[in-house]
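Researcher: Please translate sequence to structure tokens.
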Amino acid sequence: MTTPSDPQTAKGTDAASDVDTAPLPHRLHPWSWLFAVIAQLQSVALPLVAVLLFGGGDRWQFWGLLAGVFIAIASVVQYFTYRYGVVGDELVIRAGILHRNRRHVPLQRIRNVSLKQNVLHRAFGVAEVRLESAGGRGAEATMRVLSVDAARGLEALIEGHVDEQRGGGADERGVEARPPLLTLNSGELFRLGLVSNRGMVVVGAATAAIWQLLPDDADGWIGDGAQALFGRAMAAHVGWLGWLLAIAALLLTALLALRLLSIALAFVQYHGFALRLERNRLSVERGLLSRVRASAPPRRIQFWNRRESLLQRWLGRQSLHVETAVGMQEDGASSAIDHLAPIAPPATIDALLARLLPARACDDMEWNPIHPRAWRRMVKWPLALLVLVSAPLCWLFGAPGALPLLLVPWLLWSARRRAESSGWALNGQLVSWRSGWLDRQQSFAEVNKLQAVQLLQSPFDRRHHMATLRVDTAGAHPLSSSLRIDMHYLPEADARKLYRRLAAGIASTPLDW
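Model: Translation complete:
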């Protein structure tokens, strides 16, 4: 027995068949194989260099060269097999010979479009394009590389499609470009380098890389050199005051070098920084050697973090960090759009929030304190650690070993200040949490962007009638604290009341992400 097919099903099947068989007119740039080789070699650069330098024979050099040849051949094959094109409402990507892969990415699903250009990219007139979606791990597609015109054309096509689907933006295409919301001049970049610790990160990574490349007997001659230096100092009869001055000078020199390195990195990473709002999309462009451009609609921002460290407060500056509804990148790096305002005066941060958040969202923020006895729990573990450190020192050196206990008044006072600086607020549009007194932070999210709320209580919480409230937004990862607000040491009654309000709001409001 046969039944007539459903016209709508047949129509959908025909449409899907048309998409699968539609020709894909675009391919990567002819120089894409070179950048694919470079990208592959970057992941194996350190082991390959170690093999070539310390392999101990020509055989290892031959295998290293052979591996490079295979990588180059695979990159050339990728160029000839990689095709992409926009068919209907989808970006279709096809690649591979033996194992053919055809991906269909709905344009509406793409949240962020990132363009990256380093010095080599600019020399060849190309750019690397990353397309990121909401909640996915890694990029939906990474095109390495396209010509600059093709990359910007694809970016404009995706942004225009999303704007048309949202019912806006199409009438704004003819409007002249607006001035940037925020730019960073040389003075701001200098301040950014002073307040950041990027130099420490680079030094740590460089030290680890150099240590991996050193031969096995490196620790021996490093120890011999240190012993020789110490012996010369002892032969010169350097007293304890000389040792203290030498150590202080060494620490100051290292600190100055790290700050100078951080300033240099700030100029390299954020040179030409410009934050713009055009056609209902935020775009960030920055970088001296490696130029990065990323864009996303403001409505995709799920999480806001406003920070004011002690150094920033002395300089009269703050920073604004955001998280969008996209998964973590495969390399663990954050998107360029996340650093919305790396450094800016507080008035500028206020203006950005007023411009990007819903109307009057920051008004009527009534702050509620945490539990009155929270400071006792904050200071408990530092005091216990201090006692554990002081006990063996007293046993070894007697009364001078108790000198670390002089920090007890500082710990008590610091815990009270931390507790006084912490609090939560809810005004119907935003849920917010602030913490810290030396390093002040305020995290907040829109209520209609919340995805889950949890009430957590440890045995210590139950004993002291406290609770922790955890609020997750779209795209939050269970192993990461980003896109999440943790409110610690809340009074249990307040935590349960806030939990019920947020849970009711999440249940009654459609998720907007």
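Researcher: Any highlights?
Model: The CA atoms of residues 372 and 419 lie 8 Å apart.
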